[in-house]
TrEMBL record:
Carbohydrate kinase FGGY N-terminal domain location: 20-244
Gene Ontology molecular function, alphabetical: kinase activity
Pfam family, one: FGGY_C
Keyword Repeat tagged: no
GO process annotations (BP): D-xylose metabolic process
Species: Cellulomonas shaoxiangyii
Family the entry assigns: Belongs to the FGGY kinase family.
Official protein name in the record: ATPase
Signal sequence extent: none
UniProt keyword terms in alphabetical order: Carbohydrate metabolism, Kinase, Transferase, Xylose metabolism
UniProt-listed SUPFAM superfamilies: Actin-like ATPase domain
Length: 533
């Protein structure tokens, strides 16, 4: 739901003085229209889910465009309902999506193999070899790991590859004809050189040497999208692109697009966390924390991704494959129980009630233990996952303890990764949190502050998430010649922002530490479950 709009919103829409952001998340495609001051004016959305096909997580390209069109149609209808005017053009447009993964195309633009998402963990050999060769952590989900694994496996499509990109890059190219990526999204494709803010030339040469025997003639640099920083125009919406987004013909071509970004970058922008000692946490199907670095890390950590802000500044990222999905699954079960008792209750109300009950639980969760591992979790060294709830005969099984433990379980792996950064001396003053989990006021925010032992701030737009972030990056195109991104966000987004900051509660912190000790020890149970089931 968009926040309260200014009185001149209709005039801004009619005059095209708005910016449109679209983000393809893991469970929802969202569109956010913002006014000249960045205020959300209207929204659209479409629910979708990944498919598990032949042992790989994927989304079909047909589902991408059907979802985008449904999302944009809902946005257009929302504009007309709210303001009595049609959205025919925008001042700027941006597309973001889940980072990483593998979309490989031939010279005619045909997809060679189904889209392999970030959720796939079949690239262990490639990621390990590249990390050792580069002296730079290459996580399993990075695009270059998928590409190199395909080479190692001698997949028949490899000789035909003409380009690879991310989901955001694919959609952007369809809308504009340009094969580009924002530097933040590109930093999850291939390592970025901090000096040039482009792909690292030394590592590109090393990869060409690695693939020379298995894939003669394959030059990786020729496959990758051009890298662009925030604020640089990345093409314009073509007639064909406009028709792809809106087959009704209401939305016209011509709007400039900002560089396509990943969901990590849009999370940083949505929370104005692009300057050193700032950071943010995004919670969805996956969960990740981003901290902008003051200094380089002293050594390679396989738990830590080194990526960049949309402006190209270095960022340490703790990415956990598993986020709030398991908590949502339990909320659905409780909703079915309520329905079986003859009550018709909104699913969001059930989810909110379950979350709020967590505040009444024991500080350590009553001795319960939960793992939310629907997929593998590289941070803890698991190639596959098995969701678990474990308790001892002496634990206290109550709804409140169950709910608190599920939330703690969602933050457990993140806490382990953030401890690595703390041991490196990385400091953060405040973490800004965003994502649907924070729409239930005061619960996940308080427990996250306990898990990471750092103040956590949530704004009114926490639920808007990355769609708002990419809309802001689109709006930044006009300001970029005059202000750097951090300054613009500080003055444009944070100035006067309605923020709620929660400091860690000492009892909660102690309780989470006790939970985390069980969590570390219980990883042996999780590993045994993967082997046995």
């Amino acid at each position: 739901m968009a926040v309260d709009a200014p009185p001149d919103a209709a005039a801004a829409i009619a005059a095209g003085r708005t910016s449109l952001g679209i983000e393809l998340g893991s469970t929802r495609i969202k569109a956010c229209l913002v006014g000249p001051d960045g205020t959300p004016l209207a929204a659209g959305g479409h629910a979708w889910e990944n498919d598990y096909v032949d042992g790989l997580w994927t989304y079909s390209l047909e589902a991408v465009w059907a979802g985008l069109q449904a999302c944009v149609a809902e946005l257009l209808a929302d504009v007309e309902t709210r303001y009595g005017t049609r959205l025919e053009t925008v001042g700027a447009l941006g597309v973001s999506a889940m980072m990483h993964g593998y979309l490989a195309f031939d010279a005619d633009g045909e997809l060679l193999v189904p889209f392999r998402t970030w959720r796939n963990t079949t690239t262990e050999r490639a990621a390990t070899e590249l990390t050792e060769r580069f002296g730079h952590n290459v996580p399993l989900r990075w695009s270059v790991a998928h590409l190199y694994q395909a080479v190692l496996d001698e997949e028949p499509h490899v000789p035909r590859i003409a380009s690879i990109t991310t989901l955001a890059g694919y959609v952007h190219r369809a809308l504009t004809g340009r094969h580009v990526l924002g530097v933040g999204d590109a930093s999850g494709v291939f390592p970025i050189d901090a000096a040039t803010r482009g792909y690292d030339a030394r590592m590109l040469a090393q990869l060409d040497e690695l693939v020379a025997d298995r894939a003669p003639g394959l030059r990786v640099a020729d496959l990758l999208p051009e890298v662009l920083p925030a604020g640089q125009e990345a093409g314009r919406l073509t007639d064909a692109g406009a028709a792809l987004l809106d087959p009704s013909g209401t939305l016209r071509a011509g709007a400039p697009l900002c560089p396509p970004e990943g969901d990590a970058g849009t999370g940083m922008v949505a929370t104005a966390s692009v300057a050193p000692r700032t950071g943010n946490v995004s919670v969805g199907t996956s969960i990740f924390a981003m901290v902008v670095l003051e200094d380089a890390l002293t050594r390679v950590h396989t738990e830590i991704d080194l990526v960049t802000t949309p402006a190209g500044d270095p960022v340490a990222m703790v990415h956990c494959n598993n986020g709030a999905s398991e908590l949502g699954a339990w909320a659905q079960v409780f909703g079915e129980l309520v329905g079986a008792l003859g009550h018709d209750v909104d699913p969001d109300a059930v989810f909110g009630a379950l979350l709020r009950s967590a505040l009444d639980g024991d500080a350590d969760g009553g001795g319960l233990l939960a793992y939310n591992y629907l997929a593998g979790e590289p941070v803890t060294g698991l190639a596959e996952g098995r969701p678990l709830v474990v308790r001892t005969p002496g634990s206290r099984l109550t709804l409140a303890n169950f709910a608190r433990t599920q939330v703690y379980g969602a933050f457990g792996t993140l806490s382990l990764g953030m401890q690595v950064l703390a041991d490196e001396g990385v400091r953060v003053d405040t973490l800004f949190a965003h994502g649907g989990l924070f729409r239930t006021a005061g619960v996940a925010q308080r427990l996250l502050a306990a898990a990471l032992d750092v103040p956590v701030a949530v704004g009114r737009t926490a639920g808007e998430g990355g769609a708002w972030g990419i809309a802001l990056l689109a709006a930044y195109l006009e300001a970029a010649p005059h202000q750097d991104l951090a300054t613009w966000l500080r003055e444009h987004v944070l100035a006067g922002a309605d923020l709620d900051e929660v400091a860690p509660d000492a009892d909660d912190v102690a309780g989470f530490r006790a939970f985390l000790e069980r969590y570390r020890a219980g990883l042996a149970v999780e590993r045994a479950a993967v082997e046995a089931l």
